[in-house]
Amino acid sequence: MICPCTIPPSCDEVIVKNHRRDDHSAQWVDYIVWSRVGQLDFGRARQGTRRECIASVRHVRQPFIIGIAGGSSSGKTTVTERLAALTGDEHLSLIELDSYYLDLGDAPIEERRAVNYDHPDAFDWALLNDHLAALANGASVPVPVYDYTQHNRSGQVRIVEPARIIVVDGILVLWDRALRERFDLKIFVDTAADIRLIRRLRRDVAERGRTPDFVIDQYLENVRPAHERFIEPSKRHADVIIPEGGLNRPALEVLLARVRELTLGDG
Questions:
Q1: What is the pTM of this model?
Q2: Does 43 lie in the same domain as 102?
Q3: Domain interval for residue 48
């Protein structure tokens, strides 16, 4: 058995496994998870059939999780891309909040168009939190692929692998308390409303099959009210606020230097 005081400083927790023959047909594994503060979990799992009794230790390294929030088209993606360029794609996994819009099933397209996609009720927070917990424990997750042209999930998934750094990017990632508490660093990208509207208009027409009238009506009816009610107030939870997003080079350099220190300095 292992004592918490023997856990290496570079390791967040260890898992001790004790394999034993429990019946005539199957092998079971007793396991105990320890952290520096004591026992976290224990249980039994069925394994193969070979008779043996061994003990093994597996180091579990917790990822550094960053939440990047801000209004629609504020420049969150630019910040994420700079982080990925700094760390390398092999060290960073991206989770986009848009992937967790609720599945609207067979609802008519007219109903799907009318949904307020900037309201917290539009998202599957439970699934997102479950996926982050799995990634933190070293498991891959099947992230839904959202189809903007159909206002619904596509039915496909994108497999996201665990990584040293996990970035969660989306307008409301600082709104949900349970999600916020998972973040090691909380960032809010703060960009003027007129700039965000112009960027959104260009993007949605060019990439998402929207008409200019649809984008403007949606902005006035849903986007602006939701920003003022939910997104802007969530800024108070941020550790770092970046005015003008990816255009603010000095702020980005300070942020990137801090992330490099926190996540890459320990090898």
A1: 0.73
A2: no
A3: 4-60
